[in-house]
Design a protein that fits this description.
The structure is a homodimer of 309-residue chains. Chain A is of the alpha+beta class and 309 residues long. Chain A has a single domain (8-307), classed as 4-Layer Sandwich (Glutamine Phosphoribosylpyrophosphate, subunit 1, domain 1), CATH 3.60.20.30. Helix content of chain A is 35%, strand content 24%. Chain A contains nine helices and 14 strands. Chain A has helices at 25-47, 52-64, 109-119, 127-136, 144-147, 150-162, 229-235, 237-246, 252-267; strands at residues 8-16, 85-91, 97-103, 124-126, 172-173, 175-181, 187-193, 203-204, 214-216, 222-227, 271-276, 282-283, 290-297, 303-307. The longest helix of chain A has 23 residues, at 25-47. Chain A starts with 7 loop residues before the first strand and ends with a strand. Strand 8 of chain A pairs antiparallel with strand 4 of chain B, so a sheet runs across the interface.
Chain lengths: 309, 309
């Protein structure tokens, strides 16, 4: 780890029941292109020797700016017809963390999480207070039109008609995330989400929760989760992967696999995660039908996939 | 664990720099009496063979109703002069959990957390949405006067003058919590807090976060934390104790001690925790000057303490 490392980067755009029957070739290609764009945004940082923390922020920003994923611009509608977004980021070198929950009108919630990490004494800010902090810090806002899409609004109307808060109508857990190891061997993780279509009561899932949706520690791994948030909260999944490595001596692949295929399945939760360690390993386990994902190791060709191999 | 167990119960009323010089005998006795009252409220459930989940809720309710502790009635003021409370509860048998953050006007936030566990599809509800859920469920509300105290208001004025969000003026991390093991060997944990005096920006600490402030699992332990919330969030402390037991094979005492005296100290965080396992063990480590605490094992005399032994 004292020698210049080769960098590693992985991103996800959500997991769940992604049916081939509902996928067109164009749609599939568009999603893959967006995942590659996010990889490129993160790689641009890592290739210059920049920190993992900057790389995961850049990759998640790119996914937040894309309308296909349920985060930032593409966020789903709440019951009241708003967008309430959650995001978190963690630095494996310092164990510093920043997170925002229930934020409205901020273009890039992950940039807010990063600013909380850098410029606040706190880890987690929620609701209008988080927005006030964002404004004090001069973060870019965006009007409701920016977040509007016909497709998402139809999802809300369908969900309202059905009368229950629900996931994306294809049962996709729409969350985005990135994990990276930089050339110095430092790790970072970031996650961002628009939550559940038609969500009520200020529901917050695992995405903004350090330990559940996001965790990074140079000694073990960086993890970003996507799945049924309530189960990931109860399973403290991201930190679980780290503990399985640190306390039980599992490899990254074993720990990530155990957390998703053993512990989350036993609890009843489905979804997946992306993880890297400081040795160039990448793990991308999911127990759902699919997970939008892409990954790259320095000097190797990038991989992009949606369904099971 | 299949045989009738002896029950165990522990409660805390916060940790931090509790200076003997600022303590009068009356004040000390009043705090101890309140801790004993909370123990009694929890024991009343356990003695009848009731579940640990009911016992920790009853004990925390008792502490929330007491004006001495920073939770429920005794909650500190936010920057805007309100009270924003956080609470969480977890059942070690089912790994079910409920939590509420930034809740105003609810008499017993721990009862709301319990209701979220029982009656909602979600784990964590925040802000006005959590209040709306509480109202739908008919939970008891209380007017601002109920939460008002001269002492707390003076703390707010002092903190405002100093211009920073801060802990209780004696640097006490005012949080309350309870952990229990019932006669069936099931565990539960609960935590409740009023947060930081003069807090802004919708700051939320570790208390409502499953894995950080609260965790329970019949296979390992039940834990409720109190301390510098941001460090407990980054350390995922409550779940860390459980992982040290499950993955590293430590005893409850070793795991609790390691989490507080080794890992939290290394991170820079101070505070403490209370924990029980299914074998009748109790651990009450803290790395601060003091921690308000009380504990009892069925058939034994209860202990109550504030300072280091």
């Amino acid at each position: 780890m004292h020698m210049p490392n080769k960098y590693t980067l992985a991103v996800h755009g959500g997991a769940g029941t992604i049916l081939r029957s509902e996928m067109t070739t164009e749609k599939e290609e568009a999603h893959k292109r967006a995942l590659r764009d996010a990889l490129r945004a993160g790689e641009a940082v890592l290739r210059k020797g920049g920190p993992a923390l900057d790389a995961v922020e850049a990759a998640v920003r790119s996914l937040e700016d894309c309308e296909y994923f349920n985060a930032g611009r593409g966020s789903v509608f709440t019951h009241e017809g708003h967008h309430e977004m959650d995001a978190s980021i963690m630095c494996g070198k310092t164990l510093g963390a920043g997170a925002a929950a229930m934020v409205q009108g901020i273009r890039n919630p992950i940039a807010l999480a990063r600013r909380i990490l850098e410029a606040s004494d706190h880890v987690l800010l929620c609701g209008p207070g988080a927005l006030a902090f964002a404004r004090d810090q001069g973060l870019e806002e965006a009007p409701p039109e920016y977040f509007f899409s016909e497709f998402r609004y139809r999802q809300l109307e369908e969900a309202r008609a059905r009368g229950s808060a629900q996931l994306d109508h294809t049962q996709k857990y729409g969350t985005v995330g990135a994990v990276a190891c930089d050339r110095q061997g430092h790790l970072a993780a970031a996650t961002s989400t628009g939550g559940l279509t038609n969500k009520r009561y200020g529901r917050v899932g695992d995405s903004p929760i350090i330990g559940a949706g996001t965790y990074a520690n140079d000694l073990t791994c960086a993890v970003s989760c996507t799945g049924y948030g309530e189960y990931f909260l109860r399973g403290v999944v991201a930190y679980d992967v780290s503990c399985l490595m640190e306390y039980r001596g599992m490899s990254l692949a074993e720990a990530a696999r155990h957390a998703i295929h053993h512990r989350q399945l036993a609890l009843g939760g489905d979804g997946g995660l992306i993880a890297v360690d400081a040795r160039g390993n990448v793990a991308l386990p999911f127990n759902s039908e699919g997970m939008y994902r892409a990954w790259v190791r320095e000097g190797e060709e990038a991989g992009v996939a949606i369904y099971r191999e």
